[in-house]
Amino acid sequence: AEKLLEIENLTAGFLTVGGTVKATEHLSISIEKGKTVCLVGESGSGKSVTSLAVMRLIDYNGGAILEGSIKFQGEDLAKKSQDEMIRIRGNKIAMIFQDPMSSLNPVYTIGDQIAESIMLHRKKGKKEARQMAVDMLRLVGIPAPEIRVKQYPHELSGGMCQRVVIAIALACDPSLLIADEPTTALDVTVQAQILDLLRSLQKELGMSILLITHDMGVAAEMADRIAVMYAGIIVEEGSANEIFARPSHPYTEGLLKSVPGLEGARGEELYTIRGNIPGLSQLPEGCRFHPRCPYAKDICREKAPTVMAVTEDHYASCWMYSEEGGAAAWKNESKP
Ligand code: SF4
Ligand code: MG
């Protein structure tokens, strides 16, 4: 299938007084047209930095792309000027964030804010844009859109505001929507409604979604493919079916065991992965996960594993799957 976005060997980070801190390293993922890829991992794993790098917003946060390419519709975003990026952002790629209130302007009506986006990106006049704003509100499932269009953000619930933010994002008819924890600030019922909305909009509009979440439950609902990030690198990647049927990296296994109601967690006491994610300027030697890994061996503490194929089209960075790491020995051991 046709790839819309192809990130290859992306390393991005920040220049600090202590030197360069790499927040995401040698990251490769691609998204096909109309599909959803989830980047999952605990906070601090480099998921958001990755999305900021794709949008080149990292440049405004004291960061930079240090290596690699971000091919979007055949063009490398890593090489674009900010002037060119301004035309791509909000036009072909739109982004939504965790807190809808921070994306909305409290002093303008929601109708004005959607209309402004339509005028800017679709080159429509004011009158037509206002009518389209009502249609957009209907599209994102806001009841009585003719009335809502005249209201201010504070007059709407958090869930309704996130729908408005989605309407603004879609006003430019993007090919790619990047959603960074879009439901994390919402309560569970509203969360499910927003995920439903994103899925049905995707079906209707054919856009691709890069969804960033710490929540394996959200990934289970949404993802076609999943990339699990830990301490700045992808540790496992594969189709959502594969990842849930055969979680292969010990970190993914831990994430899945710690989600209530998912396979592996059912009926047992909820699992927590021991320890904390390391700071990016104090990464452990060898495998970055080794201080927290229940299976760690000597080689894990000494040498970083490379990407290994677990099955066709399913990859993990873990010594367990390599000859050099003594895969055979691991197989014969019972897991702790
Ligand atoms: Fe655990 Fe070793 Fe695999 Fe790292 S390489 S995840 S420490 S078993
Ligand atoms: Mg984040």
UniProtKB/TrEMBL annotation:
Pfam families: ABC_tran, oligo_HPY. Its main location: membrane. Keywords: ATP-binding, Cell inner membrane, Cell membrane, Membrane, Nucleotide-binding, Translocase, Transport. SMART domains: AAA. InterPro entries: AAA+_ATPase, ABC_Ni/Peptide_Import, ABC_transporter-like_ATP-bd, ABC_transporter-like_CS, Oligopep_ABC_C, P-loop_NTPase. GO terms for molecular function: ATP binding. It is found in: Cell membrane. Residues 5-256 form the ABC transporter domain. It comes from the Bacteria. It is a peripheral membrane protein. The keyword ATP-binding applies. The keyword ATP-binding applies. Belongs to the ABC transporter superfamily. This is Peptide ABC transporter ATP-binding protein. The gene is oppD_1.
